[in-house]
Fold:
Amino acid sequence: MKIHALTTGAVSVKQSFLHPLPGPRRQLGLFLPDTWSAPLPIHCWAIEHDGVLRLVDTGETAAARDVPFARMHVTAEQELPAVIAAAGLAVDDVAEVVLTHAHGDHMDGLVHVRAPVLINEDELRFLASPMARVMRRVLHQPLPAGFAPEPFALDSGPFGAFARSRALSDDGRIVAVATPGHTPGHISVICVDDSGRHVMLAGDATDSLEQLHGRRADAVGPDPKIHVATLDTILAHCADHATVYLPSHDPDSLARFTAATTVNFDGADQPVGVAEHA
Structure:
């Protein structure tokens, strides 16, 4: 198995996005004046395994519009075709795309891909809800042209600490697991690498490893209790399996990926050698 980190530009977000206020102000703060973060990466991932090239998310495009709580920094040269070519791969060779969730910075790059696109059926159902439709209109965030993903069910039974999962590869080494919170149907993809480590491509399950350790719900998800329960499940999984935890916007994800640094519980996450898949 070989995993490639692909970085399709960056995004700056309000501090209220990264550290939301408690209670009713959690989401309100997104729309109030605030300071902005330094640019955070927009990672997606390419997985070569058993002759199949899969993408987990497709990143952002230069056409992305800013929203009240996020400013995009993406050039045409940072879009999927260029970054996947820099990894020695070709976008036309992608056999399958798996979306962690249906936000633009994770799926707008679909305009470059002809392969089948998979999405959790719960996320697709939420995407069609009145609330999601209204928010796309208010934020001027349309779905990518030709957006027609194939829904899948998390019907493969438990995987580690996760009660619901779906094997994506025939050998079960690439698995989608339920990580609701940021969105109701959010999933993460866990790859069991050649050394037996679990490489968790976490999408926006959290913005950072620090948020995971802090068990802090984000400002976006509709139900913070569900989000915190998911973080507890992720931590339980990491306690039982050496896990390299890789959120899409964590500035430290690339370094953890390259060093195969696994999650520890004293806050001092442990490097375990150079990743063979880096």
